[in-house]
Structure formats: C-alpha cells, structure tokens
Amino acid sequence: MENLQKTNLITMTLDKVDFQLQEEQNFDWLKQYGAVFCVFDQQDSGNISFGVEKDERKFFVKYAGSKPIDFTGNPEDAIERLKKAVPVYQSLEHQHLIKLLDHFSTEIGYALVFEWFEGECLHSHWSFGGIAKYTNPNSPFYRFKKLEVEKRLKALDAIFSFHTYVESQRYVAVDFYDGSILYDFKSNETKICDIDFYRHSPSINDFGEDFWGSNRSKSPEEYGLGAPIDSITNVFNLGAIAFGLLGGERDRSFSKWDANQGLYEVAIKAVEEDRNKRYSTVKEFYDAWKSVLN
Ligand SMILES: Nc1ncnc2c1ncn2[C@@H]1O[C@H](COP(=O)(O)OP(=O)(O)O)[C@@H](O)[C@H]1O
Ligand SMILES: [Mg+2]
Fold first, then answer.
1. Is the overall model pTM greater than 0.90, yes or no?
2. Most CB within 10 Å of its CB: which of 51, 64, 256, 262?
C-alpha cells in the first residue's frame, strides 16, 4: 500500500518549497497571498496547507481539492468539509483560536486563509513521528514537557478557557487532540488550530470505532456508534489532554503527574470511563480546576 502510493507521487515546487501530491495542481491563486515558505503536505485530512508571506506578513492557507500523499478519500468530500468549517471558525472566534481572515473557491477547490501563528504543533507527526515525539530533544512535545509546570498550566488554561467558550456557544469539540495545540516557546502563548470538525452540541458518534480523534485523548463514546458526543465527552478529552501535558499521557498514574494532587483529582474525575461519573459540563470541570489553582 505504502509503496504503491509512493510510486505515483509527483513533486511540485512553489517558490523555494518542494512538496508532493498524487496529482499535479495549479496553485497560481496562492500567489496573491505572497511567497510560500513552508508546506504541510502529510495530513490525512485531504487538505494541503501552506505558510505564505507577503510584505512581512505571514498567513496560513489551508486548501482542499487536491490529492495529498496520505489521503485516500475523495477531494470533493474534503472540499465539503472545509466549506462547512468556515462558520465554525466564525462562530468560535477567540483569543486562543487561530484567526480566519478569508475563504474562497478556486478553480477546482476551496481555500481558507488564517493569520499565521508562530507556534509549534505538540503532535508534529510529519517531523517527529513515532517515538521521536517523546525522545528527540528537538521535538515540540519533548520541549514542552521540559517546561516548568507553571508554563504548562498556563497553556492548559488557554485550552480550557477556549473549550468553555465552545460549550457556551453550544458547540462540541470533535477531533481535538494534541495535534491541534500550537505553542510558541518564545512568547509562551498557546493557540488551538484545526477545529474544522467541531459541531453543534449535542451530537452523536456517526462513525463508530474510527470516529475522529486520537486514541491518546478519545473518550469511550468516541469509539461507539450512536454514542452521545457532547459536553461530557469534551470533559474527558480535556482531562486526557491534561494527562498528556502534565502527566504520563495514557499512563494516568499519580507518579507520572507533575502538578499537585488537587489538580490530579480533577483530571482523574474528568477521564472516568463512566460518563455519569465525570463533570457534567466543561465549565464545571474548568471551575473545579481553577478553584484548586487559586
Ligand atoms: N494559523 C496557523 N499558523 C501556523 N501554523 C498552523 C496554523 N494552523 C495550523 N498550523 C499548522 O499546520 C498543521 C496542519 O493544520 P491542520 O489544521 O491540522 O490541517 P488539517 O485540516 O489538514 O488536519 C498543524 O498541525 C499546525 O502545525
Ligand atoms: Mg489536523
């Protein structure tokens, strides 16, 4: 499968950046936003994204309509998904969410233009895949885990406050995982990216076991066809993210936890397998977390 895919790849160059696709495409429409300085061509979403720069201003441009290397689906579906994401970014605008600036159809596909955020992705599978995420001193996740607890708590606060806002707007996070967290190691700022699949709440799992998300942070509901996908689901996801950023990720023992016991208890309650034992809203979870902090 892997080899079969790789033999059919074509290489394209935009400005000084090379990337691969399964089929050639015209990217002339991208020039209006400036020169390409980086590309994200290894996503399985069906989107290919570019960092572009013009007059010292940087943008992140996400495009659906081509066939990226790791995409096995239909470009039309990726286009539909990206179009549907526009009102989601508009409804959930927040200081800790990357900012959508523009969106438009191209000859074949659809593009979203965001402000560039100078952050590094905490699950950068394309540059630090597999074990390297945890062991390579250059990996953003590795470097993040070396930061003092105060800084990591501040990052979690950004994540929790954004998701409390998501809940207040009657949305539910879908496919939120550590790959959606961008951390700027210079300014110590955190932003969330890739909220494309967030939906109106409550929703249901319409995919079964392969529902969106990572097994590092998916709740039991996110494996079961027809299960509720709602605030209580997101409570689990946020608790699991806390274990990723402060603890032993899927090893949720106290010995791997870098913060205090009070916070551990809040996080453990959030990741109860039985959804009835968790906090019943994201706000309740965040309030409990903050009350331990203060
Ligand atoms: N506004 C942004 N500024 C800088 N980098 C970004 C921005 N948004 C996303 N990225 C980077 O691009 C990667 C791919 O974006 P993502 O939204 O996850 O694409 P996809 O929809 O294909 O999954 C992210 O993991 C992140 O590293
Ligand atoms: Mg993504």
1. yes
2. 64
Among 53, 60, 102, which is best to mutate for testing ligand 1, by the most ligand atoms less than 8 A from CB?
60
Compute the distance between CA of residue 88 and CA of residue 114 in angstroms, rounded to an integer: 13
| C-alpha separations of 134 from 186, 222, 245 in Å | 21, 25, 12
Query: Among all ligands shown, which has an atom nearest to the Cα of 40?
Result: 1
The domain that holds 270 is classified in CATH as 1.10.510.10
- Please name which ligand lies nearest the alpha carbon of 126: 1
Q: For residue 28, give the CATH number of its domain.
A: 3.30.200.20
Q: Whose CA is nearest to atom 1 of ligand 1?
A: 116
Q: In a 3-state reduction of DSSP, which class is residue 256?
A: helix
Nearest residue to 165 via CA among 289, 283, 40, 3: 283
3-state secondary structure of 13: strand
Tokens 């906090």 sit on residue: 279
Regarding whether 64 and 188 lie in a shared domain, the answer is no
Amino acid found at 243:
F
Q: How are beta strands 203-204 and 189-192 bridged, if at all? A: unpaired
Would you state the pLDDT for residue 97? 98
Q: Is 183 in the pocket of ligand 1 (CB under 6 A)?
A: no
Mutate to test the pocket of ligand 1, among 61, 122, 182 (most ligand atoms within 8 A of CB): 182
Task: Supply the pLDDT for residue 141.
Answer: 98
Residue 2, pLDDT > 70, answer: no
